[in-house]
Amino acid sequence: MPEGIEPLQIGVTPQTFTFEPVDREAFPALDLAYRAGRLGFTYPAVMNAANEVAVAAFLDRRIPLTRIVDVVEAVLEMHEPAPVVSAVSLERADHWARREAVRILTRTS
Questions:
Q1: 57/12 Cα distance (integer angstroms)
Q2: Cα(35)–Cα(94) distance, rounded to whole angstroms?
Q3: CATH of the domain at 79
Q4: Closest CA to 57 of 76, 44, 72
Q5: Statement: residue 49 has pLDDT above 80
Q6: Is residue 73 assigned to a domain?
Q7: Per the domain annotation, does 78 fall within a domain?
Q8: What is the mean pLDDT of residues 79-83?
């Protein structure tokens, strides 16, 4: 990584890892991901696609970081799930979610 972070040397020197409970208020996308996973069908693909569009908008400085979750949540709320019977099902859900995320960003930017 260009920031000068040393690579993690697992197994080379003794290391201790500490895991803390996730601050769900600070990381609201985690609950959205759990929800999409529980709902199944095409929800996870829709979440991923909407997230990619929203993150790209953030990286282009068109939206603040905090708007990413809002966009993803809005797309998930509008989604009408379909069973995943083939890659085509996922591709359709992905395409739909990207289009909706762009529409939301265009409407609210």
A1: 40
A2: 17
A3: 1.10.1740.10
A4: 72
A5: yes
A6: yes
A7: yes
A8: 96
Distance (Å, whole) CA 91 – CA 99: 12
Closest CA to 66 of 27, 105, 107, 106: 27
pTM (two decimals): 0.82
In a domain, 40, yes or no: yes
Per-residue confidence at 11, pLDDT binned at 50, 70, 90?
confident
Report CA 108 to chain centroid distance, whole Å. 19
- Number of helices and strands (H, E) in the chain? 4, 0
Would 53 be classed as within a structural domain?
Answer: yes
Counting the structural domains of the chain, the total is 1
pLDDT for the residue numbered 1: 45
Find out whether 14 and 22 touch, Cβ atoms under 8 Å.
no
